[in-house]
Amino acid sequence: NLSFKTTPEALRNFFDGVGEITRIHMPMKIALRLNMPPENRGFAYVDFATPDAKIVAVTLSEKPLIGRKLLIKDGDDFAGRPAALAVEESSGGKTHSKTALKILRAQKQPPAPTLFLGNLSFETTEDHIRQLFDAHRRKPGKEKKDDKEENDDEKPKETGDDWIRKIRLGTFEDSGLCKGFAFVDFSSTDNATSTLINPKNHHLNSRNLVVEYASADAVKRGPNKPKPVEGVGSWKDSRKKSGSRPTNGRPDKPFRKFDRDTGGGAVGESGGRGVDGAPRHKGPRNRPKPGAALAQAKRQSAAIVPTSGKKITF
């Protein structure tokens, strides 16, 4: 993870005080243009005089040099860079335990308000899952109760039905039994995280469950958003009531309804439908509908037509 501008002299200054350096091998790139400054390939080999100096040099791993955190390891070690911590030890003023950090680091999906449950038994129901999470739900602490009595009375209390929005249980169509997995949609990501990091929620019906954040597609298939209130600011609401679009105060124009007998058009009532309630046909007023035009087309006879005229002999 060296910067391309790093030189052997910069490495010597970086390891100053570690021990005697016997050799620095830094592969360089091929210059593409003349007068181009040489650049390294992003790595180098440094040999020390003693094994103790090498051990001390490895402890300097992840230290910055020219804006890059170096990865320093033994030359015989072919393992990559160790995985960085996916989560912080504290978030939102709350410090997670070591078990909670271990669970969060093992997550493959980003935090989301939906959890995936796997390895469920066939007899599992939605009530079993809801009772499990409600029983192990973290309750707010009782500290400073006297100072917050007035505020607690004003704030609405969140019940167990509110923090879990929906439980989507995969079931068989014929028997209705659980397929072994489920998705639980919470009201917020914090509620989902607090349920995830609790080890007691990872066991149900003598089975070790697979509890993790759901994928983005599973979150999108969650409970529908609340529908807008009817009659508030949308022309669709007024259309449902009146049966037509609002005309912004303009009168509806009359239209002509095709008459199959005469082939002409007659003025009909306004409002988008004809006299007999048939929908208005869009297009030129005197132009018949495609079906009517085909019905009124002149038909040619298929019989043998007798000859007419005078025969000329040469």
UniProtKB/TrEMBL annotation:
<dbReference type="GO" id="GO:0005730">
    <property type="term" value="C:nucleolus"/>
</dbReference>
<dbReference type="InterPro" id="IPR035979">
    <property type="entry name" value="RBD_domain_sf"/>
</dbReference>
<keyword id="KW-0694">RNA-binding</keyword>
<feature type="region of interest" description="Disordered">
    <location>
        <begin position="133"/>
        <end position="159"/>
    </location>
</feature>
<feature type="compositionally biased region" description="Basic and acidic residues">
    <location>
        <begin position="143"/>
        <end position="159"/>
    </location>
</feature>
<feature type="region of interest" description="Disordered">
    <location>
        <begin position="217"/>
        <end position="314"/>
    </location>
</feature>
<feature type="compositionally biased region" description="Low complexity">
    <location>
        <begin position="292"/>
        <end position="303"/>
    </location>
</feature>
<dbReference type="InterPro" id="IPR000504">
    <property type="entry name" value="RRM_dom"/>
</dbReference>
<dbReference type="GO" id="GO:0003723">
    <property type="term" value="F:RNA binding"/>
</dbReference>
<feature type="compositionally biased region" description="Basic and acidic residues">
    <location>
        <begin position="250"/>
        <end position="262"/>
    </location>
</feature>
<protein>
    <recommendedName>
        <fullName>RRM domain-containing protein</fullName>
    </recommendedName>
</protein>
<dbReference type="Pfam" id="PF00076">
    <property type="entry name" value="RRM_1"/>
</dbReference>
<feature type="compositionally biased region" description="Gly residues">
    <location>
        <begin position="263"/>
        <end position="275"/>
    </location>
</feature>
<dbReference type="InterPro" id="IPR012677">
    <property type="entry name" value="Nucleotide-bd_a/b_plait_sf"/>
</dbReference>
<feature type="domain" description="RRM">
    <location>
        <begin position="1"/>
        <end position="77"/>
    </location>
</feature>
<feature type="domain" description="RRM">
    <location>
        <begin position="113"/>
        <end position="216"/>
    </location>
</feature>
